[in-house]
Amino acid sequence: MRDPWTRGIRVEARYVDRDVAYTGSGPWPEFVHEFVGPDGVRRQHLLRPSGRFAKPRPTRTLWFVPDTGTSHTLGDPFTWLFITVVAGSVVLFLGGIALSLMPGLLIGVLG
């Protein structure tokens, strides 16, 4: 499935193995997911979870860019909605505080 505004495609990858990456904070798990690209070549995608004791999903949707041969994890579809709602709430809250600290401006706006 190709989207018109990007040059990548969505692929389904399945969990096949667990690996260990050695980082500055010690050993960290990596999940190995495998998928078949549009050219028929079997590829692997390494995912380092945010927690040491995280469990891998059996399948994961990836964004594969054939030109570069790279794959990226797609975020949760509600992530941008959540960020927008939180950012909008913070802006409205801080705007209300700013207007309440300037009573002359608040009276001018409301009057």
Notes on the structure:
The chain has helices at 79-101, 103-110, and strands at 9-23, 26-36, 42-47, 59-65, 70-73. With 111 residues, it is an alpha+beta fold. Strands 3-2-1-4-5 form a five-stranded antiparallel sheet, with no helix packed on it. The mean pLDDT is 80.
* Strand residues, percent: 35-45%
Order of helices and strands: EEEEEHH
Shape: elongated
Indicate the low-confidence ranges by residue numbers.
none
Oligomer: single chain
How many runs of DSSP E, i.e. beta strands?
Answer: 5
Secondary-structure-based class equals alpha+beta
Could you report the average pLDDT, rounded to the nearest whole number?
80
Residue share in helix? 25-40%
Query: What is the CA-based Rg, rounded?
Result: 22 Å
Counting DSSP H or I runs of 4 or more residues, the number of helices is 2
| First-to-last CA distance | 55 Å
Largest sheet: 5 strands, antiparallel
Q: Strand order within the widest sheet?
A: 3-2-1-4-5
Descriptors:
five-stranded antiparallel beta sheet; 111 residues; elongated; alpha+beta; 28% helix
